[in-house]
Amino acid sequence: MRVEIWSDIACPWCYIGRRRFEKALNQFEHRDQVEVIWRSYQLDPNAPRDYAGNVNDLLAQRYGMSREKAESLNVHVSALAAQEGLEYHLDRAHPVNSLDAHRLIHLAADHGLQGQMKERLQKAYFTEGLVVSDLDALVKLAVEVGLDADETRQVLQGNLYADAVRADIRRAQMIGVNGVPFFVLDEKYAVSGAQPVEVFLTALEGAWKDNPHL
Q1: Mean model confidence pLDDT for the chain
Q2: Percent of the chain that is helix, strand, coil (3-state, to 5)
Q3: What is the DSSP letter of 103?
Q4: Contact of 145 with 117, CB cutoff 8 Å
Q5: pLDDT, mean of residues 99-111
Q6: What percent of the chain has pLDDT over 70?
Q7: How far apart are CA 75 and CA 72, in angstroms?
């Protein structure tokens, strides 16, 4: 059974949704027969490569709210993340363009390291406050999960996998994805958002029963 997950590096709910899905998958009887594929999605494809402020500044600017209100919202989502075992430091997160990070995930997929690369980038962004558009930072993270530094640098200095990222985004648009995380199970079942573990488990069980190849 195949599960495709559309998400963005800079989406706080995507990391939370990932953890909840993983908890459901661990409870799923046939988890060893589930293939998880990460699909690219950019909440803001026009975001700059460099941004001087942090997530609080961006929220306040984008939605016309006070900085205090933005901080309050991020404290709330950080508390929810903590319930899933995640440590958010959104006051240190740098909301930059995630295209290169997504290209790196596609490179990792070709080496069987897609899930690991996605996880490392999410932790780097939400917990460590690394700039996930910075070339040297991305190469360092890639090496940590087992990719070759020279190959990674060469890929990121060019445009390789940019078409694959955009293809993922176009497909998301075609199937009606208007927010992430978005989970598609065997192209039949869909779960939108960081739903409770029980919702993911029910979807996994339903998709398994309807799988004609089993």
Answers
A1: 95
A2: 55, 10, 35
A3: H
A4: yes
A5: 98
A6: 99
A7: 5
CA 154 to CA 168: how far, in whole Å? 22
Based on the number of CB atoms within 10 Å of its own CB, is 192 exposed (0-12), middle (13-18) or buried (19 or more)? middle
| Pairing outcome for strands 35-40 and 2-7 | parallel
Cis peptide before 181 (omega within 30 of 0): yes
Phi, psi torsion values for 164, nearest 5 degrees: -65, -40
Tell me if 93 sits within 8 A of 126, measured CB to CB.
Answer: yes
Rounded distance, CA 73 to CA 65, Å?
A: 11
pLDDT (mean) for 80-86 = 98
Question: Domain 2-209's class?
Answer: alpha beta
Confidence class for position 56, pLDDT limits 50, 70, 90: confident
Cα separation of 146 and 190, whole Å? 32
Cα–Cα dist 15/17, whole Å: 5
Confidence (pLDDT) at 63: 85
Q: How many residues does the chain have?
A: 214
Domain range list for the chain: 2-209
Q: From the centroid of its chain, how far is CA 135?
A: 19
DSSP bridge partners of 108: none
Cα R_g (the chain), whole angstroms: 17
